[in-house]
TrEMBL record:
CDD domains: GT1_Gtf-like
Organism listed in the record: Jatropha curcas (Barbados nut)
Coiled coil segments of this chain: none
Keyword tags: Glycosyltransferase, Transferase
Protein name, entry field: Glycosyltransferase
Pfam families in alphabetical order: UDPGT
SUPFAM superfamilies according to UniProt: UDP-Glycosyltransferase/glycogen phosphorylase
UniProt-listed Enzyme Commission number(s): 2.4.1.-
Family affiliation: Belongs to the UDP-glycosyltransferase family.
Key word Lipid biosynthesis present: no
Record keyword Metal-binding present: no
PROSITE patterns assigned: UDPGT (PS00375)
Length: 509
């Protein structure tokens, strides 16, 4: 930074869900590491998840701090401490959490008005931040938690509505106008794409806010999806800076262990177990922070992993609770005797609660990743250079699956065809035989597995280069910071000219 360059102040507003918050906190820390003054706005229980890393950055001389909001638990009808989408255990609680986050709006506006930063980087799920930024005369940049590919698919489906011509839920169709032939079925599309839902108005607002923004920040890298990065800008005209994969910013083990939540307790025992396994032999299975399976589906997964013939580390998520006996259901559930058998056989480990995912994936013993296709998980699997078994459930996960299996070709689908936010008793079961078959295909040493492993390694290399000095993401980070600085100078210049003009007018003639 030259002496003339005054430090710019950027405020980050992440959404209260791990898949949004974690990459945004990584980005905020990246900005601070590059000389920007950074403030992250969030609530107390969310701040606890990453406060240690921020304190560490601050101690090392970076200008980074937190602005803590108080979450309206009582007004939202939520138990104290439930401030993140990953903490909800029923769909009703999730709705209340959305409502609670909505209630934060006036508090957040006051914080922005008091600080008057030079730029707001807001999760795209807070569309109203575009108006706050306009009032303050500063740019608003949206953080889109997904890939260029996803944005291009979603845009094409919205504009062309190819599914309207198709009656059957299971017949596949080609998404028009994309650089590759991408096939989807109607049953894999989010509900909101097919019909109006209670979220339709919000989605319209999100798109409008994105168009009015200064640009979007992407957790991706150019070499991963060049055709889609170009296509996105060409089709939408929206400026995009890709800074990813931002998880690679977590270089030391402390950062990796604490990333997203510092409550995990299994790191040592888990690493010891992985150390005892051969390189590339272990399947890591995790379905992100929001997926909930039924007990029946959990039984199928448990049996498949146990019988697959490959060692596994499985992060057992929460199960869907039945409405009637909400109180007495356990959050994490496993079939009787399963854990004891594993202890005896050494075939696998289960992790209940938060796993240090990046640390585990990087371990030399990991040879494949069974994932729900959340965008962060895909990037983290790719950064570890391992092939994927893809099991999308909802959100944009089916689109992400197509990028992995049809375009980049480093994963095999498990065969889930139905988009559903949370599984319920009517959701189709993915049977153990099917799971076992795909796990063997990806973890084995057949030609297909070898090719996928090779491609995963190539992508891993490209990802590393992208974030290193001179790489595409590194350069984009420098560009976005410079663009914010130029915007600031330009508005100051305008103010100066306007000020002089007023003085001229006020001068006695
Ligand atoms: N994650 C983790 N430990 C867990 C579960 C999830 O570290 O036990 C992290 C994972 O590394 C990823 C994020 O949580 O960075 C989940 O984001 P993703 O986009 O993959 O899925 P989502 O949770 O949003 O569905």
């Amino acid at each position: 930074m030259s002496l003339r360059e005054e430090q710019i102040h950027v405020m980050f507003l992440p959404y209260m869900a791990p898949g949004h918050m974690m990459p945004m906190v990584d980005m905020a820390r990246l900005f601070a590491a590059n000389g920007v003054r950074v403030t992250i706005v969030t609530t107390k229980m969310n701040a606890i998840r990453f406060k240690n890393s921020i304190d560490k950055d601050f101690r090392s001389g970076r200008n980074i701090s937190l602005e803590i909001l108080s979450f309206p638990s009582l007004q939202a009808g939520l138990p104290q401490g439930c401030e993140n989408l990953s903490s909800t255990t029923t769909p009703e609680m999730t709705i209340k959490l959305f409502h609670g986050i909505g209630l934060l709006e006036p508090q957040i506006k006051i914080v922005f008005q008091q600080h008057r930063p030079d730029c707001i980087i807001s999760d795209y799920l807070f569309p109203w931040t575009v108006d706050v930024a306009a009032e303050l005369g500063i740019p608003r940049i949206a953080f889109s938690g997904s890939s260029f590919f996803n944005l291009c698919v979603a845009n094409s489906i919205e504009c062309n509505r190819p599914h309207d011509l198709i009656k059957s839920e299971t017949e596949s169709f080609i998404v028009p106008g994309l650089p590759d032939q991408v096939k989807l079925t109607k049953s894999q599309l989010p509900d909101i794409v097919k019909s109006k839902t209670e979220f339709s108005d919000l989605f319209d607002k999100l798109k409008e806010a994105e168009r009015k923004s200064f640009g979007v920040l992407m957790n991706s890298f150019y070499e991963l999806e060049p055709a889609y990065a170009d296509h996105f800008t060409k089709v939408t005209g929206i400026k995009a800076w890709h800074l990813g994969p931002v998880s690679l910013f977590n270089r030391d083990d402390d950062d990796k262990v604490q990333r997203g939540d510092n409550t995990n307790v299994c790191e040592r025992s888990c690493l010891n177990w992985l150390d005892s396994k051969k390189p590339n032999s272990v399947l890591y299975a995790c379905f992100g922070s929001l997926t909930r399976f039924t007990k029946d589906q959990t039984v199928e997964i448990a049996n498949a992993l146990e019988n697959s013939g490959f060692p596994f580390a499985w992060v057992v998520g929460k199960i869907v609770k039945c409405k009637n006996n909400e109180e007495d259901e356990e959050e994490c559930w496993l079939p009787g005797g399963f854990e004891d058998r594993l202890k005896e056989s050494g075939k696998g480990i289960v992790i209940k609660g938060w796993a240090p995912q990046v640390l585990i994936l990087e371990h030399a013993s990991i040879g494949g990743f069974l994932t729900h296709c959340g965008w962060n998980s895909i990037l983290e699997g790719l950064c570890a250079g391992v092939p994927l078994v893809t099991w999308p459930i909802f959100a944009e996960q089916f689109y992400n699956e197509k990028l992995v299996t049809q375009v980049l070709k480093f994963g095999v689908p498990i065969g889930n065809e139905i988009w559903k936010v949370w599984a319920n008793e009517e959701s189709p079961l993915i049977r153990r035989n099917n799971i076992e078959r795909v796990v063997r295909l990806v973890m084995g040493d057949g030609d297909k597995a070898m090719q996928m492993r090779k491609r995963a390694r190539q992508l891993q290399e490209r990802a590393k280069i992208a974030v290193e000095e001179g790489g595409s993401s590194y350069n984009n980070l420098k560009s976005v910071i410079e663009d914010i600085r130029v915007y600031k100078r330009a508005t100051e210049k305008v103010k100066e000219i306007e000020g002089n003009h007023l003085i001229e007018l006020e001068k006695p003639q």
